[in-house]
Structure formats: structure tokens, C-alpha cells
Amino acid sequence: MPELLTIGVYGYDEAGFFQALQQAGVDTFCDLRARRGVRGAAYAFANSQRLQQRLAELGIRYLHLPDLAPSPTLRQTQAAADKAEKIGRRQRTLLSPAFIAGYTRQVLAPFDTGAFFAALPAGAQVIALFCVERDPAACHRSLLAARIAQDAALPLRHLLP
Known about the structure:
Elements: E1 3-7, H1 14-24, E2 28-31, H2 48-57, E3 61-64, H3 72-85, H4 97-108, H5 113-119, E4 126-130, H6 140-152, E5 156-159
Parallel strand pairs: 1-4, 1-5, 2-3, 2-4
Helix pairs in contact: 3-4, 4-6
């Protein structure tokens, strides 16, 4: 039975991030970002090319799944909610109800868990869903992970710094 994990980059340093993946036994890494860059020198290791290179060195397969990322409109909806709450993106701990409703309608409603698993490389056993936010509840990856875990009756674990 596969294992499903989530991980964000904020709060990790480079060594800690890759160590967490290795300790969890991740063999398949699913990048759920539309834009595969992270601002700030401290997180340069999570920019697409560097990330893919390091994962390959560790024997972890990389998949980019941009169709599972929130749309620009949904990102703007969350940014407006963050602004209204007077919190920065990196300080957010929860998604707004409007974002959750929109992501559920736009991405999760048509999502097919069976097709997701069928598209994974053969032998995928420990699958990590990745985006940038530190707290899973502040990121769309938690919504997707909960859906996959429920549909496939899988345990779900969130890796945290």
C-alpha cells in the first residue's frame, strides 16, 4: 500500500529538507506549483532545476503536476484574504474559506484519484506532495492530500520542519 506525505519548503534549510525526504523514504516527489520558483536565497534549492537535480541524485523521481496548482485567480483570492487579515503569505496558517471553495470546485471536483495513481511511475510507494507553505493547512496541498487519502483509504502524514 502506498504512503502519502506532504511537505512545504518554508522553515527548512536545504540539508533539513532533503534529509526529511530521505528519512521518510520518499521515492516519488510531486511538485504541485504552477510556477516552480521560490523567492529568497535561503530557498534557492527549491527552484525547479536545482530541486530536480538534487532529487535525481537522491534517487527520488520528480513529477510536475501544474494542473493541481491553484489558478492565478484563486491565488489572488487568498492574497486578498491574507491582506484583510494583515498577515504575510509565509505567516499564514489556514486557507480562506473562499480559496477552499474555489479550489474544491476548480480542481478537486474533476480530480480522479485513480488516474492520479495510474500516472505515477511504476513502483511509487512513498509519494510526497510538495508546495511551499510551511503549514499544510495554509496550502492547497493539504486539500489535495486529504482527497487522495480519503479516496484511496491511505494514511496521510505531513512532514514539518
